[in-house]
Batch of 2 targets.
Target 1
Amino acid sequence: QVQLVESGGGLVQPGGSLRLSCAASGGIISFYDMGWYRQAPGKERELVATITTGFRTNYEDAIKGRFTISRDNGKRTVYLQMNSLKPEDTAVYYCNAGVNGPAYWGQGTQVTVSA
């Protein structure tokens, strides 16, 4: 059983940056594809970015060029660097891990982009 704990969320002004972290325990992270999803109020959870066991990345169109996903298997941590944040990026951000799709989820971290 893999446990995931997100951190790094908070309140930031438009144009600002945040780096989210997802710390994994209970499993060998290098075996899993990892990803970040987000859910805004009143909306469905949506994919933000994924990174495979082979470090191949994929991004949702709205955040391409602004967000970067990375992983450090030695530290058992996945990161989401978010730059040029916009109010529409406001959401709860969730980390996930899985093989052939998300299987394990963290509890989420709130990101609020507001002046």
Target 2
Amino acid sequence: QVQLVESGGGLVLAGGSLRLSCAASGRIFRINDMRWYRQAPGKQRELVATITGGDSTNYADSVKGRFTISRVNAKNTVYLQMNSLKPEDTAVYYCNADVSTLDWEWKNYWGQGTQVTVSS
């Protein structure tokens, strides 16, 4: 049993910054790739950023140069630093991770989401 819990969302003016956190807990042996997705009302869920177990990163074109994904493996936590926020960044942000337990059962997990609202 693994849980992912996001935090750090909120309301911010355009041009502002937020840092999202997602902490994994439970029966965790290893976490490989971790990701941030977002979904706005009436829109498809969008992959925002990925960080691999080897710390390679990838970003959606819409956030390149503004967002930074990072992780602290000792804390089983992934972060998303969001700078120069735009109204179109408004969405519920979800973390996602590939996790193995002590039983070596690899599964994909989702957090509950955290709301980010950017106003102009």
